Amino acid sequence: MSPRDVAGHGTHTSTITGGSFVSNASYKGLALGTVRGDVPRARIAMYKVCWNVPQGQCSSADILKAFDEAIHDGVDVLSLSLGTQIPLFAEVDERDGIAIGSFHAVAKGIC
């Protein structure tokens, strides 16, 4: 199993946050300069929660497990870039896994 996501979305969002300084960067030759993420050299912990399930969605059980791992690992900030329109695997948990995980993270002092 690969830790990489199918479309590269996780890698993209991580570079927005923790991307290092890159000189001589441009977009199609325009706006030549130096680019960087919001917090260069930040330490980023990524947790894969979206697996090969119907329509590429994420199950609440996997989302909650990632929250538990992040809390255990002592992260300071959580940033989620995922979601679903319909509950997936309602037989596991009919509630919103992102909301439940977020509540537990905030209760542990994580932003």
What form results from the Cα inertia axes?
globular
The amount of helix comes to 25-40%
Q: Which H/E pattern describes the elements?
A: HEEHH
CA gyration radius, whole angstroms: 17 Å
List the quaternary state of the chains.
Answer: single chain
Total strands: 2
Poorly predicted parts? none
Biggest β-sheet description? 2 strands, antiparallel
Beta-strand percentage? 5-15%
Find the structural class using helix and strand composition. Answer: alpha+beta
Number of helices: 3
Distance, first to last CA:
30 Å
Q: What is the strand arrangement across the widest sheet?
A: 1-2
Mean pLDDT comes to 77
Description:
With 111 residues, the protein is of the alpha+beta class. The protein is 32% helix and 11% strand. It has 3 helices and 2 strands. The protein has helices spanning 9-18, 60-73, 97-107, and strands at 22-27, 30-35. The chain has a two-stranded antiparallel ribbon. A hairpin with a 2-residue loop joins strand 1 (22-27) and strand 2. The two termini are 30 Å apart.
Can you give me a brief rundown of this structure?
With 111 residues, this protein is α+β, with helices and mostly antiparallel strands. It has helices at 9-18, 60-73, 97-107; strands at 22-27, 30-35.
Topology:
Blueprint: H1 9-18, E1 22-27, E2 30-35, H2 60-73, H3 97-107
Antiparallel strand pairs: 1-2
